[in-house]
Design goal:
The structure is a homodimer. In chain A, about 45% of the residues lie in helices and about 10% in strands. Chain A is α/β, with parallel strands linked by helices and about 300 residues long. Chain A has a single domain (about 15-235), classed as Aldolase class I (TIM Barrel), CATH 3.20.20. Chains A, B: This is 4-hydroxy-tetrahydrodipicolinate synthase.
């Protein structure tokens, strides 16, 4: 393993990280201009960082080259790399290494890493070997990995035993995890079991509880439309208003619980920005019905969520 | 859709197609020399075609660039493209289009196409739109798609309703399917429901039954080690020996049914070629124990399977 020591490692990620939605043009190529606008709007409205290329970003519907190009675009546009946590995990170690190397060399705060997710029922040893091989392949001491546990979609869970082994083998590198299991018992167990390890809940549904157990923040899809509401919980968790702030954020989140999450978020963006193309996901996802989107956007406004505040 | 008409379309694939194992060097890069040797050995020993970059090939553990490079290697080495059916389906339409275009422009017989497999629980409309978008993106009338139905690993089944819609929309392009469901009832239903559509069972377990219902052959992992035995069933299915040939092929297949398939096949290759590195898969898969591999290879020899015949 060749370790590069060319720059100081990034500080640990904290606060609200948003898996940034990826807007498309009518031909389903990436709308780079709207993507940049949305990134800037998020950073101006409560997001501490951008987990670009997450599930909500439809990262796995983007080609490897597209992701490399978009990351370069963000850096060239002046988005501070220390506020970026790109998703870089693919099925194949070479592609994961390639994306991860780009993120590290750009100075990103860290990477959010899905395990290889094609083969199912893999062993703990095989899962450990996969992440270990990526770390060896990247070979850069600045690398900070936040594991991405999303068993519902990846169908490859990251068990606590593997997390423990990775922390032991790479204590400076494997520093955190996003728990998108939707299972609060799992999040709580990880927070209690691995103190000092940055466990980000993948939703704000139990954010206050998580913060009280030491979570550094959260990484959540609905941060795309309610960044200020979620950030308020993180900033105010020790205040007398903490429960009320959590309740409000939870109400917004609940609006999306029985809707297809990505199409619903995009429909809200389309209404808020008066930009119909914002509705478009890439197949296999399909756009939400316009009427449903309008109802959702109106309900959000009733809850006090205003996406038109200071659009950049 | 811009359609290129630069060459005649390939004939429909028939016979035994083998999802070629991908051998690695100790550093887990592809052992190109052994890969080529194995491809040639298969074509000399019963394989009608090579379904390179299938599940058994660990295609999803190979980077996009690696697959493009390996395909170029095969063509340059003189492997006839009309005997190639590369797997080209990835999670992302741009990568799938890129790989598929390369295969079409090389003159391959067809491509074996997984649907996008990251998002789960997708709609029939979304699945149809995905394959349709790839066809539009490739934009070449020579394209022949064999859909790849492998619900256990992809977790994205291809329902009969979607197959029917794809055939109707693209009758010249969507010409077949590999059914790796392991569910004979599904294979039979597809053969009966879509006459003229090339339904390849993904295993030789029910090969004779499938041939009798019009299957054009099969695409099977164990073709890597028993190509002649499986080819004999295809060639002899109308002969008096048909049942005996099926029984023999089935006995070989059964050896792998309670073993991890890819590591077991690689262990057999390592014994047969006296090449320990043949054992190595890429993570998340792990190599089979050497003792287990030796037992398996010995049992294969007892069944009359001889991989040392005329190694090229």
């Amino acid at each position: 393993m060749s370790v590069v020591e060319s720059a100081s490692p990034p500080p640990r990620a904290r606060g609200l990280y948003v898996p940034v939605l990826t807007p498309f043009l009518p031909d389903l190529s990436v709308d780079e201009s709207r993507f940049l606008d949305h990134c800037r709007w998020l950073l101006d409205h409560g997001a501490d960082g951008l987990a670009v290329f997450g599930t909500t970003s439809e990262a796995n519907s983007l080609g490897i080259e597209e992701k490399l190009d978009l990351l370069a675009l963000l850096i060239e546009a002046g988005i501070p790399p220390e506020r970026l946590m790109p998703g870089t995990g693919t099925c194949a170690i070479p592609d994961t290494v390639r994306l991860t190397r780009a993120a590290v060399s750009d100075g990103c705060a860290g990477v959010l890493m899905l395990p290889p997710f094609y083969y199912k029922g893999i062993s703990d040893d095989g899962l450990f070997a996969s992440i270990d091989a990526v770390i060896q392949g990247v070979g850069d001491s600045r690398l900070r990995i936040y594991l991405y546990h999303f068993p519902h979609l990846s169908q490859v869970p990251i068990p606590a035993a593997v997390i423990g082994r990775l922390i032991e083998a790479h204590p400076e590198t494997v520093v955190g995890l996003k728990d998108s299991s939707g299972n609060w018992d799992n999040t709580r167990a990880l927070l209690e079991h691995f103190p000092g390890f940055s466990v980000f809940p993948g939703s704000e549904a139990h954010l206050l509880d998580a913060l009280r157990l030491g979570a550094p923040g959260c990484i959540t899809a609905t941060g795309n439309v309610n960044p200020m509401g979620i950030k308020a919980v993180i900033d105010g968790w020790k205040s007398p208003e903490a429960e009320a702030l959590q309740t409000r954020a939870g109400q917004v989140r609940a609006l999306f619980s029985d809707r297809p999450l990505i199409p619903a978020l995009k429909a809200v963006m389309a209404m808020a920005r008066d930009a119909p193309t914002w509705r478009l996901p890439r197949p296999p996802l399909l756009a939400m019905d316009e009427t449903d989107g309008a109802v959702l956007a109106a309900t959000l406004r009733e809850l006090g969520v205003d996406l038109n505040d200071a659009v950049t």
